[in-house]
Amino acid sequence: MKVYFAADHAGFAMKNMLLNFVRGEMHLEVEDCGAFELDTSDSYPGIIACAARSLAQDIQSGIESRAILLGASGQGEAMVANRFKGVRAAVYYGEAHKEQIDVGGQGLDILTSSREHNDANALSLGARFLSEGDAKTAVQKWLSHGFSGDDRHAKRIRAIDSVA
Q1: Torsion, Cα of 71, 31, 25, 110 (10° steps)
Q2: Which pLDDT belongs to residue 164?
Q3: Does pTM top 0.85 for this prediction?
Q4: Is 5 within 8 Å of 32 (Cβ atoms)?
């Protein structure tokens, strides 16, 4: 599996740390889509679009890939990524302060749920809300989980993909 990374200045240092972590400790193929230098006047849309476009092309070609996107909050980065056909970006900026329970009474974890239920293929991290350790844990957990394949979830994903 290939993992694309992209960040603006707010996520630049954390992107570089996570890229090395995923390559070195998780032994996954990575591609750095920028920013390539710290520039406090950069703007995330073009940088994030590079990773999202690559991910979307892989999706169209049937290549299993993911993207890790970073910005101050991760919100705008996810908005950019979600403009690309087939990209489903989830935002994460830390553990919930309240336990999340599904309709069946089961506890939910937002990271694993985004993979298992929504087949999210991009994770947008709020770099200003996460420590390096929390970011590593989040990325490892998210990349290690797959889509459940449940019919009800697959049906929803097809509906999402047909909207655009």
Answers
A1: 40
A2: 58
A3: yes
A4: yes
